[in-house]
TrEMBL record:
Keywords: Bacterial flagellum biogenesis. This is Flagellar hook assembly protein FlgD. It comes from Novibacillus thermophilus. InterPro entries: FlgD (IPR005648). Pfam families: FlgD. Belongs to the FlgD family. GO terms for biological process: bacterial-type flagellum organization.
Length: 142
């Protein structure tokens, strides 16, 4: 029986080691990393000196705040990419970077395809993130 427990613990430990090598290293932590750290902390705490309730509640509140900020950020990004919000670009003279070349033209339409919003300029699709300048159409800008 004890050897079975040791083998089980070894398999678990070996699994953690393999996962460490397979995971990509990130410069920042996200909500999943935070939750993983919290669960690991709870699983490996000293049974004779467990985490206090106040500390646990504080960490859960931090996790909740982190998750809400993440969700808000995601919604803001989706809103920024919304074709309806970018309809004001139609008829405007825009400048964008294509590789190392700067190009410009007048926006004919806003198109949403495969999760990305594009400005259609002279039949070409330009990612909104590539646009570096917007101005009203005047006689001089044409």
């Amino acid at each position: 029986m004890p050897s079975e427990a040791v083998n089980s613990a070894y398999r678990t430990y070996s699994g953690w080691k393999r996962d460490d090598y397979q995971r990509e290293h990130k410069a920042t932590l996200d909500k999943d990393d935070f939750l993983r750290l919290l669960v690991t902390q709870l699983a490996n705490q000293d049974p004779t000196n467990p985490m206090e309730d106040r500390e646990f509640i504080s960490q859960m509140a931090q996790f909740s705040s982190l998750e809400q900020m993440y969700n808000l950020n995601t919604q803001m990004l989706l809103l920024r990419e919304s074709p309806v919000l970018n309809a004001h670009l139609i008829g405007k003279h825009v400048t964008w970077v294509d590789g190392s070349e700067e190009k410009s033209g007048i926006v004919d339409a806003i198109v949403y395809r495969e999760g990305f919003t594009y400005a259609e300029v002279d039949g070409k699709r330009v990612l909104l993130g590539d646009i570096v300048g917007i101005k009203e159409v005047t006689e001089r800008s044409i």
